[in-house]
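QUALITY CONTROL LOG
STEP: pairwise intake check
CHECKER ROLE: data steward
CRITERIA: each record must contain a sequence immediately followed by its structure tokens, with no blank fields

ENTRY 1 OF 2
RESULT FIELD BELOW
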Amino acid sequence: MIDHILQALPALFSWDVFLSMLIGTIVGVVIGGLPGLSATMGIAVLIPLTFSMTPLGALGMIAGIYNGAMYGGAIPAILLRIPGTPAGIATVFDGHPMALKGQGRLALKIALYSSAIGGAVSAISLLLLAPPLASVALKFGSAEIFWLAMLGLTTIAVVLSSNPVKGLLSACFGLVMGLIGIDQMTGSERFTLDSMYLVGGVGILVLLTGLYAIPPAIDLAAKALLIRAEDLRRGDSGGREPMPWLRLLPTWCKSSVIGVLVGIVPGAGGNIASLLAWSEARRSSKQPETFGDGAPEGVAAAECANNADNASSLIPALTLGIPGNAVAAVILGGLLVHGLLPGPALFRDSAPVTYGFMLSMLVTSVLLIFVGSIGARLFISVLRLPALLLAPMIIAMTFIGIYSIGNSLFDVGLVAALGVLGYFMEKLGVPLAPAVLAVILGPMAESELRRSLLISQGNLGFLFSSPISLILVSLIIVMLCSPLIKRFLSRRTGKTLSEDIAKKISND
């Protein structure tokens, strides 16, 4: 392997390949920063333009777009509470509250370094551990993927809400939305209300934009206040606030591992990785009540796991031809376009290009720090816009972005309706994240459940037949019971404390 790496290094740092990686990183940050666009879309548009490029130059640009877009999604998530990419949902939880406190620049800096660290760890895992880790992915069958999806739904529904019932209610709403459209198993229409516009289902970008972009704009227009310019100048340290390196180091370590492991599992993705990492950071924190109110660890966990998923999702794609997510699937197309056939032979027949591509994932993670540091000075200026101007701009940009994706006025109306619904959900204390995650995980859980039942001919015991399934089921039960356990312990602690106080008073 070392020989292949040494062969790839000269080509990787040739001026044309390095320039491709730099351009790809810049383009990726811009794509991720524009709500409605994603790394998948950016790479898909780029591939036809790389026909005349060398394979390594094209793959280096793809690596730059991939890493850049995953960080770029944090920019509108922090500054405007609009996830630039689906994986930026968890970044909103603490990133935007930090911006409202005048710490927008610090939040962007934390997101930048967290993304770079996660991407670097992921690239190293891809480079060193691809063959052995790919065998782990093979152990996840339809039953295991179903329970993994259910664990993600349960975790986020229970953890994200102070009232688990409201969290589960939001998740159920997302499940219903995810069922709209064509049944993947039978091909029949479901819940489309005889509308051709709903045959394809509710797009995840439509739902994300509606629930996360419109409600804050409505609230902003109603209050005519987000952050006034004088508040920003008084509250933001102008970039001089130091990075809490030691404080964030444990979060980076745990989140990197979570992101890598989730990336290996086909069908999971950065959105699941970031949400699980955020949940774990909150669970293990000494001050869990600060999460959701501007905790730097929340931003670090979400962005680190988000980017740690990048290269690791390519492990099953490169070694087995099984894409871990939609981006990996598009990248497989890019490999085929340049005559590279995914599979074990890829590491033997095209070793210099393959290892060069894996190294480019590491190099673009480092380039991300320089690109993001320069851009952060421009990104923070969005908060200086007057609130009365910012609100209609957000709504206009949202509608234009959604219309440009599908050229559908129906999608624009659906975004507006979902935005109003999301506004009232927030006012009632119903969290939005479980609904979005349910739309992503619901169809996957349904298809894997039905596939499991078909394989086992209706035997429900098949769902519990493997150790991995039993572990995941146990975690789901723990998550569902955790609110009851916490309530019991808090009551017991309160009772013991009151008895101690009564004893002390009687002794006195």
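ENTRY 2 OF 2
RESULT FIELD BELOW
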Amino acid sequence: MFMRVGVLMGGESSERSVSLRSGQAVSDAITELGYDVVAIDPKELYETLDALTSVDKVFIALHGSLGESGHVQGLLDWLKIPYTGSGLASSALCLNKLRTRQILAQRGFHYANWHSVHREHAMAENIAIADSMGYPLVVKPSSQGCSIGVNKVESPDELATAIRQAFDYDDDILLESFISGREYTCGILGDRALPVVQICSDTFFDWSAKFGAQTASYHCPSDLAAETEQAIQQLALNAFHALGCRGWGRLDVILGDDGKIHPIEMNTSPGMTPRSVFPMATREIGLDFPQTIEQILALASFDPV
């Protein structure tokens, strides 16, 4: 069957470079599947609209603002073009770490001690909050991905710089107690939780560990006992449904030294670069990269406006 697929990639968010790599890998896979590909870098509205009118489906390979904020999803809903991933409301919700954790915490998910801080708060007030929480802390923007603007703070001397850096990306930031433990991530494809991927890093798992110096390594199968792996998979499914997600996604978690599973964030447009963990997990269930893309495309839909 002939099909023309638009791949939204790039954009103007802080995650542009990662999105371009994801988009290229997805485009190559769609070509391998025998479909037409239209690469769309949404810099200008009218050029983007013109390109979208020629496609049958859209694969959203945008990361961060615009692509995961609900804006693009709302446009595609209005145009009645099926697209991959979650709809407008759940995309906007999941990009906002503050709102996500408020909802999941009400449903019994375990979070470390945390406080939200707004740009208008005095720095002295922020420092007082942090001091009351104790160190180490993690400082992060509320609405960013790829660990952009995220810093681990070991002492009060480092706090003000980390807060200012986080405010470069958002008006609301989070201060949270550092969780000692191991990091994992679990992808969702349709209604199925994928094998858990273990994330190992000798340093704090920030943007550099992921995409810069790339000191992190990823392992699938993970080192988990079967019972713990199943618990993380069930948690990922529960979070996926509680946040109204659909199609595909990925929940990042920390398995604390206390034995509790702490969610970090739900990704509604996971990375699909050569180093990305989502295709690593689908390989474990027998899907190569093009087959993974085909299944994601098969789940594409839109919400009636």
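INTAKE CHECK: passed for both entries
DESCRIPTIVE NOTE, ENTRY 2: The radius of gyration is 19 Å.
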